[in-house]
Structures
1.
Amino acid sequence: MKIIEAFWEKRNLGVSCTEISIEKEDTVELLEEKKSNFGSAEYMVIKVPVARFDIHEYLTKNNFIFIEGSINFHLNLKEATLTKLQQRLDGEVTYAEMNSDDLEQLYEEIKKGLFKSDRILLDTYFTADQAAMRYINWIKDELSKTTQVFKIVHKNQAIGFFTFKQIAEHVFYPFLAGLYEKYANSGLGFTTLSKPIEESRKRNGKFISTYTSTNNPSVVRVHTQQGFTIKELQYVYVKHNIISR
Amino acid sequence: MTSLEKYNEAFISSLMVMEPQLSSLKYQLVEGWDSVGHMSLIAALEEAFDIMIDTDDIIDFSSYEKGKKILKKYNVVI
């Protein structure tokens, strides 16, 4: 069991937050035993491997709410595919690392609601503004490390973005991506994966790892259509502890 | 097969919708018309009418009715 004090969520969401990842060997008894360590957080997030019905039952009885499935997708770059039409369109779309103006545009797009299936946005305890600021802060934090942010460009217009970081030798992790509002219904959503794939190839990458929510079936479909396979699936539960101040 | 029949068939087979839904159909209104569905639809229309649709028109192709207007540019009258 991994227990993380997600201190950054105090800044992002205004609540203390503990995130717990249940591992294969963890038991209900261990979870109950550790309860005192994490039970005081205002917002709790627990990620559980699928088919652990004992843990699912325990969490449900303890007033945790199921909020999403988290899919870890994996792509062997040799298996990446595009249809003929996608290949034609992909050739008309470019990408470039963002400058400060591009980043400001990205933050504005996020504030407009770029991420619609996010578990924070869907959670009635939080607001759309909180969900947006969480993403913006996340990107800013990552930019101060090794992450790069790229804009996706069609006819000199930024149509979307992707983040890009290396997490192991030959393995890249584009952990956030999306199309801007004006292009959300353009059919070019596939470029939010095809361009990170292109960049990974340029860097001699062999694999890509991403996480996607089951709350967004369209994004799941675009992953499988381009050759990604499911490496791991977890169920995510949340609980809000109302603490009087 | 008439142009309208070919046009409808492209929607029905690509987006997994029924004929009565077609006239009010818009992008993202049904689960099947997402990014992947859009690419399938455009590919089916290109094949059915032996045309190559410009990227700007692919981006603008946001509804069943809008598509009819766009295809006029390619001398396809629905």
2.
Amino acid sequence: MSVTSQRSSGPGRLLIAVYAVFALAASARAAVQIATKFDDAPVAYLLSAFAALVYIVATVALARPGATARRVALTAVTVELIGVLTVGAITAFDPGDFPDDTVWSVFGRGYGFVPLVLPVLGLLWLRHTARASAAS
Amino acid sequence: MVAVVDWAVIVASLAYAAWALVAVARNQPPREPYVIGAGVVELLILVQAVVAVVLMIADGAPDETATFVGYLLMNLIIVPLGLFWALAEKSRWGTSVLVVAALVVPVLVVRLQQLWDAGAG
């Protein structure tokens, strides 16, 4: 199991695929927002770009083998969870600060709340694969 | 956009997702028929993209042109990328990647329709 990373096989295959979809969607969205109407809502659009970056880092780190990649993935997924909870809470109670939607607005409502579930699954998967490799 | 082409893409991608989901339930890895199926879906997406570009040139692009083109491009790459990622995993989880990729397509088509109906600038 060490040649092809445990993290990117089995259920990890599906998890990374979903991460990749969000990396793509968030990047495209942020790029369009910043390129065409940045002055409308700079905070929201910078946040979109940050979210995109987090998804990209998480996708690549989850897909790569090794202890360093694992640490990077753990950091990225943790930041993702904090991000979706923070932005979700702010936008749910006081939408004034974010006039335009981001991936994380209202806990990812615009994306079927997948952004809220994804980091939890990511953390569970990282813990599971760490235990599996420690046991082998 | 042309409704017939849009619906063809939506129906084909949903049917493909359902087909792949059955394979996931049966614990099957992604096999050759699913590659061919993905090719059929991709062909329809390609037709749709060409039709959309021709219509944009003829009738004018929707107001949110950049977003519209972005969705068109994402729609074109999602199935091949999913296939690439799926085929390296010889288990039901490989097939499940195909389900996800196929389910992104109808979402994108609906968003494309919304942007198109919002008006040509």
